[in-house]
């Protein structure tokens, strides 16, 4: 481990800053490429960093590897692993088999995605990358079991990479192009973050769990409260939490009194709508949300530890002993093959089967939209509860009518026996069907087992350089799943003038809305095919819900109302330049870079919004697009459907200097406003060369 080097760097930083440092600052600054001269200004400067390792999941790995291959480099510069956790579809409803449905799901995934898995395995072997095979587990759980170490810096192509915090490693979610930079040996750039301190006091008690800490915090600071910040927990309460509990908190990242904290349920449709358990029933009634639960799900990288599953099994055994039956379909996902095998040995999964629950595969499954539900028609309102970490519209099953609530594994399990969102296991009883009343006892669980069972070994280790050089990467030339990338064209003068507005997005627009998951995972390695989903989940301000469906717009030339990607393709073919207007915190959520690749591929040059999520803004820059923000947020409201937009001064753009936008209306009038950008001098060449990768290749070619 690189502790000697990190200590040396840290000594330089201590001398330079001459002030106390938080733990996250120590870790981050000790990984600076140039600790002597790097500007350190939280909130304004950009840090050039050298991570310790890179991790990529299969849904992003195809595109990341295709980009890495185009860079012409023989081996990754940093230790890198690829994890096959996103592409396994979980069957639901009547097609799900009580017991071990996950085994069947895994077999089906290996057949369906054979081409992609072979590509990932061969490319990993060729470029010195570790490859975790289907069924091995979820990226973050595998990292926690095998690679995470205190004081390290990890970058991963998933927004839940901070899971590594449970072992005092700094994990940061990035887009695929950022990961490629690190893999090629280039410094990885990060806007210098501020540190948001959260002091924990007291100790969790009763039904409260580590999941409730982050659910409560999300309600306090909202989904935008952590932008540009590292959330660091300190205080006496931290010492009462184990590693897996701290990983749960880090995975989803004021003062919080743990003694007074009660179980918390967040949702629906956003992870920062927080409800104390005692007030959930009232909120459900007041808002008219479906009270009946259609499903309860436990697992994900956030909550599938040994301790989590032990608590779940304990509740199941309590109910079974009292003769109480499940009233809601109950699904359990284990975080890794090691956790699955260890939980099997302990009898936890037997408890799930005996209760009538369904054991899914060790993968992301419904948490990332891989859930083939058969019980509810698309569009029908229904409620589900889970121990997952995201609950955006359509996130789990592609159904905009699904009201998803996020909570701890214990609460999700107890709710499965009530079948209703107005239940409080801390105070309420359930009928045992024989005239008696049953009340759950508070569940307990051990942090670690006496020994772990690794189960089936599903890891392909990197080859020697000699063997790796002889490996042929498998890509079928006529594949509809994989497509070699062509370089994007450099910026041309006039690209930002007289732009048609493709869509004016209204409200929350996550990367799930820009590039939906679910069945679209099949095309993550084929840019042309996956671009057919671009912005199909977004609400158009000119055609708002509920009177109009998502993902539609008006063709500026024909006047026809069509799907957004259909219009974008038509504009590209006709040479019509266009821009996208976003709203607030545009591109929050998942780190998927396809949300930036697709508009770039279909001809968009600029996205203008009131604000961007950090990862998505960087992804747009990396792909040669220009993300801009309104200096006056009220300007968003003034833009009309048939307006034409021009942005001046792009070719002379400088760090910190605003650009002027002029908007021409159909009546001949015009108005202007100023736009901000966050480019520094090292990023502007990405735009001018057409992408960051183009710029890297030009540097290597000496141009």
From TrEMBL:
This chain's source organism reads: Hyaloscypha variabilis (strain UAMH 11265 / GT02V1 / F)
Q: Where is the Aconitase A/isopropylmalate dehydratase small subunit swivel domain?
A: 501-632
Keyword terms of this UniProt record: Iron, Iron-sulfur, Metal-binding
User: Which InterPro entries would you find in this protein's record?
Assistant: Acnase/IPM_dHydase_lsu_aba_1/3, Acoase/IPM_deHydtase_lsu_aba, Aconitase/3IPM_dehydase_swvl, Aconitase/IPM_isomerase, Aconitase_4Fe-4S_BS, Aconitase_4Fe-4S_dom, Aconitase_dom2, AconitaseA/IPMdHydase_ssu_swvl
PANTHER family the record matches: ACONITATE HYDRATASE B, ACONITATE HYDRATASE, MITOCHONDRIAL
Can you provide one Gene Ontology molecular function annotated for this UniProt record? metal ion binding
Alphabetical GO CC annotations of the entry are: cytosol; mitochondrion
User: Which positions fall inside the Aconitase/3-isopropylmalate dehydratase large subunit alpha/beta/alpha domain?
Assistant: 25-256
Name the record gives this protein: Aconitate hydratase, mitochondrial
Read off the Gene3D superfamilies from this record: Aconitase, Domain 2, Aconitase, domain 3, Aconitase, domain 4
Q: Required co-factor?
A: [4Fe-4S] cluster
Q: What is the superkingdom listed in this entry's lineage?
A: Eukaryota
> Which BP terms in the Gene Ontology apply to this protein?
tricarboxylic acid cycle
């Amino acid at each position: 481990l690189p502790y000697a080097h990190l200590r040396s760097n840290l000594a330089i930083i201590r001398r330079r800053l001459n002030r106390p440092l938080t733990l996250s600052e120590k870790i981050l600054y000790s990984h600076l490429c140039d600790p002597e001269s790097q500007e350190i200004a939280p909130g304004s400067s950009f840090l050039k960093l050298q991570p310790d390792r890179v991790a990529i999941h299969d849904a992003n790995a195809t595109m990341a590897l295709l980009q890495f291959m185009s860079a012409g480099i023989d081996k990754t510069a940093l230790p890198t692993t690829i994890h096959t956790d996103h592409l396994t579809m979980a069957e639901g409803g009547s097609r799900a088999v009580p017991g071990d449905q996950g085994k069947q799901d895994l077999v089906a995934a290996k057949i369906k995605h054979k081409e992609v898995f072979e590509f990932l395995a061969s490319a990993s072997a060729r470029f010195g990358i570790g490859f975790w095979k289907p069924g091995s587990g979820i990226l973050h759980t595998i990292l926690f079991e095998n690679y995470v170490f205190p004081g390290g810096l990890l970058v991963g192509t998933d927004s839940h990479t901070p899971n590594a915090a449970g072992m005092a490693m700094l994990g940061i979610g990035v887009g695929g192009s950022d990961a490629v930079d690190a893999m090629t040996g280039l410094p990885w750039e990060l806007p210098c973050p501020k540190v948001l301190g959260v002091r924990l006091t007291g100790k969790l008690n009763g039904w409260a769990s580590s999941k409730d800490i982050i659910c409560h915090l999300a309600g306090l600071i909202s989904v935008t409260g952590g932008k540009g910040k590292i959330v660091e927990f300190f205080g006496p309460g931290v010492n009462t939490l184990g590693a897996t509990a701290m990983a749960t908190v880090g995975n989803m990242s004021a003062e919080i009194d743990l003694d007074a904290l009660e179980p918390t349920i967040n949702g629906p449709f956003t992870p920062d709508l927080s409800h104390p358990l005692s007030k959930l029933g009232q909120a459900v009634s007041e808002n008219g949300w479906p009270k009946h639960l259609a499903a309860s799900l436990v697992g994900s990288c956030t909550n599938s530890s040994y301790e989590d599953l032990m608590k779940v099994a304990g509740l199941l055994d309590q109910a079974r002993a009292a003769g109480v039956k499940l009233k809601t379909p109950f699904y359990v996902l284990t975080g890794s093959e090691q956790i699955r095998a260890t939980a099997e040995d302990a009898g936890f999964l037997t408890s799930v089967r005996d209760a009538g629950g369904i054991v899914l595969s060790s993968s992301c499954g419904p948490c990332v939209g891989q859930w083939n539900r058969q019980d509810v028609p698309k569009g029908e309102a229904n409620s589900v509860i889970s121990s997952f970490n995201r609950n955006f519209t359509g996130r789990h099953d592609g159904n905009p009518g699904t009201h998803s609530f996020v909570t701890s594994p214990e609460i999700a399990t107890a709710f499965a026996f009530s079948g209703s969102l107005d239940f409080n296991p801390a105070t309420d009883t359930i009928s045992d069907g024989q005239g008696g009343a049953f009340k759950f006892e508070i569940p307990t669980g051990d942090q670690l087992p006496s020994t772990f069972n690794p189960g089936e070994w599903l890891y392909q280790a990197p080859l020697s350089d000699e063997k790796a050089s002889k490996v042929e990467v498998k890509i079928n030339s006529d594949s509809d799943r994989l497509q070699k990338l062509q370089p994007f064209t450099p910026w041309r003068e006039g690209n930002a003038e007289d732009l048609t507005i493709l869509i004016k997005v209204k409200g929350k627009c996550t990367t799930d809305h820009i590039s939906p998951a679910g069945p679209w995972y099949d095309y993550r390695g084929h840019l042309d095919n996956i671009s057919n989903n671009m912005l199909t989940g977004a609400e158009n301000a000119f055609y708002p819900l509920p009177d109009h469906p998502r993902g539609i717009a008006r063709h500026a030339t024909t006047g026809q109302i069509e799907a957004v990607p259909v219009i974008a393709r038509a504009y590209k073919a006709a040479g019509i330049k266009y821009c996208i207007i976003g709203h607030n915190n545009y591109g929050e959520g998942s780190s998927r870079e396809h949300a930036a690749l697709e508009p770039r591929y279909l001809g968009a040059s600029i996205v203008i919004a009131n604000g961007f999520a950090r990862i998505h803004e960087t992804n747009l820059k990396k792909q040669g697009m220009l993300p801009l923000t309104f200096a006056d947020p009220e300007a968003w409201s003034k833009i009309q459907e048939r307006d034409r937009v021009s942005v001046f001064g792009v070719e002379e753009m400088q760090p910190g200097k605003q650009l002027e936008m002029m908007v021409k209306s159909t009546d001949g009038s015009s108005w202007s406003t100023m736009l901000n950008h966050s480019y520094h001098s090292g990023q502007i060449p990405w735009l001018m060369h057409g992408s960051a990768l183009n710029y890297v290749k030009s540097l290597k070619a000496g141009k």
